[in-house]
Amino acid sequence: MQTLETLIEGKTWSAGSDYKSLNPANLDDVVATVRLAGPDAMKAAAESGRRAQREWAAVPAPVRGQFVAALGRLVAANAETLAQLVTREIGKPIAEARGEVQEIVDTCDFFLGEGRRLYGQTVPSEMPDKQLFTFRVPVGVATIITAGNFPVAVPSWYLVPALLCGNAVVWKPAEYAAASARAFAELIWRAGLPEGVLNLVFADGQATFDGLSQSLEAGLVDKVGFTGSSAVGAKIGELCGRHLQSPCLELGGKNPMVVTADAELDLAVEGALFSGFGTAGQRCTSLGTVIVHEDVHDEFVSRFDAAVQAARVGTPDQDDVLFGPLLDAKFAESYESFLGWIGSHHRVLGSTGTGRITAGNPRSGFAGDPASGLFYHPVILDGVRPDDRVFLEETFGPLVGVTTYRTLDEAISLANKPGYGLSSSVYTTDPATAFRFRQGIGAGMVSVNNSTSGAEAHLPFGGNGKSGNGSRQSGIWVLDQFTRWQSMNWDFSGKLQKAQMDVATVSPDLEFRL
């Protein structure tokens, strides 16, 4: 067990209450004691970032790219240790944890080259002896607040491009993933980052919000990034709006999967199994509802039920486990409330019980001792209706709804109805169906014959509606979150030339006819 404290310029910050980060697969295992700071720590971290940022921005961008390259090598060298820590602290199966760490490496591999490609443009002027230019400049200080279901990969989507672009960062990770966050921060600092450019703050939700509010009021924060629930994201968006800020919001999802009559059903079942129950359904991109054509509904549900029944659930240190425990007690509590939405018109499938897995409520084939952690039965809920809460709202946990449709237009309408817009999927062998689905769906990400989960490091990631404000992470698109365009005009004519007025014109003969 270790004690973790807020670090600003490498120095610990006095804190108030302690939080115990527990291993959700073994609740007797205290991974870390986290000393939670108050709002003043958020403001102090931003002040530190403000002092350090200008000097960091003056470092040539290709050299900042060398920092990103070094970070990628450090993460690769420490990959197994970091993955094991992620599994221990949040209960993610070790195979997924290794993939998450690899995603940091992939992100670094992509962005190390962007240090040489932070391109502006030379633009032709409408007047002689004048040149026009555009430049990307860093926004300044970014406050990044992240969830713990992807405790190192998702933060890398923010931190790597933000630092590459010459910004300073205040990072506030989730308390229940504090040890993983601290480990990742250590690697970042040791990759060559000057003091104060990245400060790490541990705080609860209210202190974070209050500290962010104070920092914005003092003009210390130029960009806010947030990954978390739609409800909290709306509050952060409102706060930023009062200060004329446009935050980068990556929020929840109720991600649909449409299975057409011509779909390859075994492939669709494989996709639904992974996207619905990987990470115990605790991803923003987790499958919410399968919308199945009525002609293949019964066959799909039968195969899906068999696959979920056969899937291995248990302690996450085993390679063959589909999912382990829920992330934290607060998520277990909320998931149990979602199970209360099951109605008499639903058919419950997928396991030998519902709710928490115990000796009295066993899961067939469970790997390990269910009494040790926060393990829950997977649930397939057939017969979901469009007015059900379980259809309309995100259910963060191992629960997937199933409903039916007749026409593609109906399927698209059902897919859009909850108002989220993060990820979506369609299984079909007809290219026309795939393109029509893409055209009609409101999600920021569309998969064809693939699951709703599985982002690649060089493709834009983000959603619309309740899932976000249209901002995007990953790839070149995230550069627009952490840089601002600056234009410059340079007139060397020796006189004042006024745009739109002192402009040469041509004199066409528009009356001419052949």
UniProtKB/TrEMBL annotation:
Domain (Aldehyde dehydrogenase): residue spans on this chain: 17-487
GO function terms (MF aspect): aldehyde dehydrogenase (NAD+) activity
Catalytic residues (UniProt): E250
Pfam families the UniProt entry points to: Aldedh (PF00171)
Keywords: NAD, Oxidoreductase
Residues passing through the membrane, by range: none
Enzyme Commission numbers on file: 1.2.1.3
Keyword Kinase among record annotations: no
InterPro entries: Ald_DH/histidinol_DH, Ald_DH_C, Ald_DH_CS_GLU, Ald_DH_N, Aldehyde_DH_dom, ALDH7A1-like
Enzyme class name: oxidoreductase
Gene3D superfamilies the UniProt entry points to: Aldehyde Dehydrogenase, Chain A, domain 1 (3.40.605.10), Aldehyde Dehydrogenase, Chain A, domain 2 (3.40.309.10)
Complex formation: Homotetramer.
PANTHER family reported in the protein's UniProt record: ALPHA-AMINOADIPIC SEMIALDEHYDE DEHYDROGENASE (PTHR43521:SF1)
Family statement: Belongs to the aldehyde dehydrogenase family.
Protein name, as recorded: aldehyde dehydrogenase (NAD(+))
Species whose genome carries this gene: Kibdelosporangium banguiense
